[in-house]
Each structure stands twice: as structure tokens, then as C-alpha cells.
Design brief:
Radius of gyration: 20 Å
Shape: globular
Number of helices: 12
Strand order of the largest sheet: 1-10-7-2-5-3-4
Length: 335
């Protein structure tokens, strides 16, 4: 299809997808510039100082999810969902009488499937899982930018910290969190045709579930790694060492990626229009909170047992849906 002949609906999809993708990096600079400029004018000096004090000293909403998430339901997310498109598929009903820790795999470059399927209602999460209120968790640094933080807070997104996990799940029945378990380390392995998960030694999310009495729910997102092409960065390469150093220093890193453009299909930073299907698996039930030590003795053994069950359920989920959704992928690698 010629770029000239693109239907208007697809142009709208591209616009809102680009707006979201560039809002975080560009919006951060713009919002801080506006905040700093406001400090130089008498009329805005005091309100700006009070707002900054509120952000850094008072506001607890990034860790407790207290904001009303009305931005989950706005129309632009439907256009973002349709751009790829992105689908949410369930394999079993989840009772609203329980609490849940959703684990998202693979992380991909920026976990687009997690954002759209669990951070918005564009794919129908509330209809598929009625009575369950889920909060997607992300880096705390995303909540330190004036104005921009208000947008993601009103999507119901919270910071990825132990305190945040426990506070949200302490609300009781129907509460849930979503974690991209592999994090920045897994993002470095995001490339088309690859399903390498950083999971074998990731057990913090299991401890959260056991501490809170929340069931663990694996989510395998087919197509998440297909959105951008990536430069080769094998273990030990100069590029990988640079990325690992950045990850260690800043808790995030930049995959060396390229995709398509806004007005062309060959060169740019936009993701390719490739389908994502996030399949929600069967929960590993945790009947009640564990109050003992989870890092030694009986508690550590229980963590290992639940973690092994989780990995097995995730592997079965992959194999069950691989032929339909990723026929060219032969193996799921967990490292």
C-alpha cells in the first residue's frame, strides 16, 4: 500500500501511537522546562514550589494507586490498540474474590501489550475479568516529572516497589498488579523471532504473592518482541557491556532498535504494525498470606516450589498457543 493511499483511520492510529511513544521522553523535557520557567514569574513561583513539594514530599499515590483511573477508558487507546493490533485472550475465568499478581512475558522493548491490555481497557480487560482492578507497575522515575506523572497516575499505573505491591494487594478481593518480570535485562533480548525470558532467578514477585496471599497468573504475550528490529548485542559484546552498565547505573537501558517511520515503512523509531496476543494462563493459587521468613528455610523452599510451578505453567501456555500464534518459534528459553 502506498503511503499516499493510507486510509484516514490508520493515520489516526499512527498519530495516537506516536503521541504516546514520544510523550514520555519528549514530555519529560517539556514538562520540566515549563516547571523551571514557572519559578521565574511571581504569579507562578509559589504554586509551582507547592506542587513540587507535593510531588516529592507528600503524594503517596504512586505507591498506593489512590487516583481514579479514568484515563484507562479514553478513546485514543482504542486507536493505539488497533494500530498493531493488540488482543487480550483469557484461558480461564478469574474469581473477583481473590487477589492476583500477573506476570507479563516477554518484556519486549517497552511492554506495549502490558500497557494496552492491562493499563487501559481498550482490549476489554474489565469485560473479560469483571471485578478485578489491576495496576500496571513501572519505574519510580516515571512519577518524578511534573504534570506528566498526573497522566499515568490517572491511568492507574503505579511504581514498581515492594511497598507499592503490598499496599495495592492489601486492599483485598479483586485487587491485582501487573509486573513485567524480566525487566530491563529481558528488554535487551527483545528482537523478532526471540523468546528469551529472564526468569530463573527472578523470585521477588513470588515473594510478593506469598506475602499477600495473592494468586500468580502467567501471561505470555505473543508478538511483543516483533515490534522493532534490534542490532546484534550478544553477551560480552561492546554494545551489551554498554547497555548492562547503563542498566546497573540507572535501572533502565536503551535497546539498540529501529523500526518504521511515521510517513514511511522502512526507517524510523515507530514500531511495526505487528499483532500482539497476550494470553492469560491458569493461576497458581496461594490460599493465604505467608507470615514467615521467605528467604531462608521453609519459606525459601516454598518460594522455589511456587516459582517452579509458575515456570511450568508459563511453558505449557507457550506450547499450547505457539503453533497458532508463533509457528516459526521453536523454543522458549528461560534463563
Amino acid at each position: 500500500m502506498s503511503i499516499i493511499d493510507v486510509p484516514f483511520s490508520r493515520r489516526v492510529q499512527t498519530f495516537f501511537t506516536a503521541l504516546w511513544l514520544f510523550m514520555i521522553p519528549m514530555g519529560t523535557g517539556i514538562c520540566w522546562m515549563l516547571a523551571l520557567l514557572a519559578l521565574f514569574f511571581p504569579l507562578t513561583l509559589i504554586p509551582t514550589l507547592l506542587y513540587l513539594a507535593f510531588i516529592f514530599l507528600i503524594d503517596q499515590s504512586p505507591s498506593n494507586g489512590s487516583r481514579r483511573p479514568y484515563l484507562r477508558y479514553i478513546v485514543p487507546w482504542r486507536h493505539v490498540q488497533a494500530y498493531f493490533p493488540i488482543e487480550l485472550r483469557k484461558t480461564v475465568d478469574l474469581s473477583p474474590d481473590s487477589k492476583y499478581v500477573f506476570g507479563y512475558h516477554p518484556h519486549g522493548v517497552i511492554s506495549m501489550g502490558a500497557l494496552v491490555n492491562f493499563g487501559t481497557d481498550a482490549s476489554g480487560f474489565s469485560a473479560l475479568f469483571p471485578g478485578i482492578v489491576v495496576h500496571v507497575l513501572t519505574l519510580r522515575s516515571n512519577f518524578l516529572t511534573p504534570l506528566l506523572r498526573e497522566f499515568i497516575l490517572h491511568m492507574g499505573i503505579c511504581e514498581a516497589s515492594l511497598a507499592s505491591c503490598l499496599k495495592i494487594l492489601a486492599r483485598g478481593s479483586g485487587s491485582a498488579i501487573m509486573l513485567a518480570v524480566g525487566g530491563a535485562a529481558e528488554a535487551l533480548d527483545a528482537r523478532p523471532g526471540s523468546y528469551q525470558l529472564t526468569l530463573k532467578n527472578r523470585k521477588g514477585f513470588v515473594r510478593v504473592a506469598l506475602r499477600s496471599g495473592a494468586s500468580l497468573v502467567p501471561v505470555m504475550s505473543f508478538g511483543e518482541n516483533e515490534l522493532w528490529d534490534a542490532l546484534p548485542n550478544p553477551e560480552g559484546s561492546a554494545l551489551r557491556r554498554l547497555q548492562d552498565a547503563m542498566k546497573k547505573a540507572m535501572r533502565f537501558t536503551f535497546p539498540a532498535i529501529h523500526g518504521r517511520g511515521i510517513f514511511n515503512y522502512d526507517v524510523g523509531w515507530m514500531p511495526h504494525r505487528r499483532r500482539i496476543v497476550s494470553v492469560v494462563g491458569h493461576p497458581i493459587h496461594v490460599d493465604k498470606p505467608y507470615t514467615g521468613d521467605l528467604k531462608s528455610g521453609e519459606g525459601a523452599a516454598l518460594v522455589d516450589k511456587i516459582h517452579a510451578q509458575y515456570m511450568e505453567e508459563l511453558a505449557q501456555l507457550f506450547e499450547k498457543h505457539r503453533e497458532e500464534l508463533a509457528p516459526d518459534i521453536q523454543q522458549l528459553v528461560m534463563k
